[in-house]
Write a structure and sequence with these properties.
single chain, 130 residues, mainly alpha, globular
Length: 130
């Protein structure tokens, strides 16, 4: 299971839509490592002069790696985090998550980062089983 959904939130979801804020809070408490990585790259993007910010630090353990993979593999979770932080996320491997300004989507830097060439060049034998 990806998320630990509180009973009250699950009941609200069964009755209808829940807010992004409620959903993101569920993600934050269920997948704290993934949330922290996204929060950090979003903050780095806002505070830096670079066109994007990315995480190059491998997760400390398999539990953390699993959290990050679950967050990035879910359109709903990734989308909720993107809306919450006002960014576009890109994901290359078991730990390389990048935050881009929404205005860069479709631009050269974003397109280069998500390209098949970049994916191939980002491979590393130590990351084969991540």
């Amino acid at each position: 299971m990806s998320l630990d959904v509180p009973t009250a939130l699950l009941e609200r979801a069964e009755r209808g839509e829940v807010s992004d804020a409620e959903f993101v809070e569920c993600v934050r408490t269920s997948l704290p490592y993934a949330y922290e990585v996204v929060e950090r790259v979003a903050a780095d993007l806002r505070s830096g002069a670079d066109e994007y910010a990315d995480n190059l630090i491998a997760p400390p353990d398999e539990k953390a790696r699993g959290q990050l993979l679950r967050a990035m593999a879910s359109d709903a979770i990734r989308g909720g985090l993107e809306r919450h932080f006002g960014i576009k996320l890109a994901f290359q491997n078991c730990h390389r998550v990048a935050a881009f300004p929404l205005s860069s989507v479709g631009g050269e830097t974003y397109s280069t980062f998500i390209s098949t060439r970049a994916q191939l060049l980002n491979q590393n034998p130590e990351l084969r089983n991540c």
